[in-house]
Write a structure and sequence with these properties.
It is a single chain. The chain is α+β, with helices and mostly antiparallel strands and 238 residues long. It has helices at 4-13, 96-122, 129-151, 173-191, 198-212; strands at residues 23-27, 34-40, 51-57, 68-70. It folds into 2 domains: 4-70, Roll (Ubiquitin Conjugating Enzyme); 92-230, no CATH class. The protein is globular, with a radius of gyration of 20 Å. Strands 1-2-3-4 form a 4-stranded antiparallel β-sheet, covered by helices on one side. The two termini are 27 Å apart. Pfam families: UQ_con. Residues 4-155 form the UBC core domain.
C-alpha cells in the first residue's frame, strides 16, 4: 500500500499535464521518490536554447519536508544577466564597472552553455534521448547563427534575435577564440541530429570555421567526453 508521501507524490504527478512547453518532467514508477526535469534555456539570456537537467528527490516524510534539488554547480539562475544575481553584485547594475563585469560573465556563461549542449548531445540522459535530438534539431539554426553573431559582435551575448546584421561591437579576443572553438564542435554534434547545418551557415561561414581549426585540430576526431567541470548542468543516467 502506498505511503502518505507516495500518495502525495502521485497527486503532484497530475500537475505535469499543465507545465509550460519549455519544461519536461519524467517520473519513475519504481522510484516514486525521484523525478528528472528538463528545462529549455530561455531566449534573451546567455543560456538560450540550452537543455538543462535537474534531479529531484522527495524525502520519506514529504510533504512535511520539501523535495531536494540536485545541482552540479552552486548557483544556476537562468535569466538575462546572471552576474547581478551573484551575492554582492546587484548594487553594481547600471554602473560602468558592473556592466563590464556582467558582459564578461555572460560571455563565459554562454560558452559554458554551449559546452553543456555538447555534453547533452553526446551523452543524453536516459529516457530523454528523443527530446534531446528533437530539441537540438529544431534549434540548430538559431544556435549556430547566434554563435556567429556573438563572435562577430553583431549582437550582445544572449540577445541574438535571428538577424545576422547590425553595427559591429568590439569582441574580446578570449571570447571570440572560445566561440570559434566550440562552434565547429557544435556543427558536428548538431548535424548528427539530422539538422542540415550547411544550409544556413553558407560557404563563407564554413570556411571561417575551417580556418579556426587548421592548427592541428580535427573536429571529427574531437569527440572525446567533456570534463564535468565544463558543464553547467549535465546528469548522466545511472
Amino acid at each position: 500500500m502506498p505511503t502518505n508521501a507516495q500518495k502525495k507524490i502521485m497527486q503532484e504527478w497530475k500537475l505535469f499535464k499543465d507545465l509550460p512547453e519549455t519544461i519536461f518532467v519524467r517520473a519513475y514508477e519504481t522510484r516514486m521518490d525521484l523525478l528528472r526535469a528538463a528545462i529549455f534555456g530561455a531566449r534573451g539570456t546567455p543560456y538560450h536554447d540550452g537543455l538543462f537537467f535537474f534531479d529531484i528527490a522527495f524525502p520519506a516524510d514529504y510533504p512535511a519536508k520539501p523535495p531536494l534539488l540536485l545541482l552540479s554547480i552552486q548557483a544556476l539562475v537562468l535569466n538575462e544577466r546572471p552576474y547581478f544575481n551573484e551575492p554582492g553584485n546587484a548594487g553594481w547594475a547600471g554602473r560602468t564597472y558592473g556592466e563590464k563585469k556582467s558582459l564578461a560573465y555572460s560571455e563565459e556563461v554562454f560558452v559554458l552553455s554551449c559546452k553543456t549542449m555538447l555534453c547533452v548531445l553526446r551523452r543524453p540522459p536516459k529516457n530523454f534521448e528523443q527530446l534531446v535530438t528533437q530539441h537540438f534539431k529544431d534549434s540548430a539554426e538559431f544556435i549556430l547563427n547566434a554563435c556567429d553573431a556573438y563572435r562577430k559582435g553583431l549582437a550582445g551575448v544572449g540577445l541574438f534575435n535571428g538577424v545576422l546584421k547590425g553595427t559591429k561591437a568590439e569582441v574580446s579576443v578570449k571570447f571570440k577564440g572560445a566561440v570559434n572553438q566550440v562552434y565547429g564542435e557544435l556543427m558536428v554534434a548538431l548535424s548528427k541530429t539530422g539538422a542540415s547545418v550547411g544550409q544556413w551557415n553558407g560557404e563563407k561561414c564554413c570556411s571561417e570555421v575551417e580556418e579556426d581549426y587548421v592548427s592541428g585540430i580535427n573536429i571529427e576526431e574531437e569527440e572525446s567526453e567533456i570534463k564535468d567541470d565544463s558543464c553547467l548542468s549535465c546528469f548522466r543516467a545511472a
